[in-house]
Amino acid sequence: MSAGQYTPGPDRTPEREATTPSANPAQPSGDRAASLGGAPSYPTREPGTPATGTSATTAPGGATPERKVTRAGVIWAAVVAALALLILLIVFILQNQEQALVKFLGFEGSVPLGMALFIAAVTGGVLVAVAGGVRILQLRSNAHRARVRQRK
Most exposed: 11, 53, 101, 102, by fewest CB within 10 Å? Predict the structure, then answer.
């Protein structure tokens, strides 16, 4: 077979060429597939086994492998969730444009209902965050004092 040609074998896997070296020297020489004109080589499978991606993959011990959670994946999921919430928030504000009379500590004004509810929600969130931050600082301070007492 000449370089650049591809002819599948009887079991639909590429035929191996003994004269072409493998691109991956870490593989044992018996498992090296021919690199046909720089084309990637694909692992062969036994006839009758499902193709990759058609069923759950299994680890060598027979158990399904655990997926690793990465920081990038967590950040990506958080960004997607935040964008979905922002889209829902925009829809909510646009659908609630009626003017509402708002009175607070002697101040009085008329704002769109959606904005008034959004401002109230953000204010509530800020208050909860401040209370949580104070509690976290209190717990850290107590933990620090406990560590200092243990050292003495």
Answer: 53
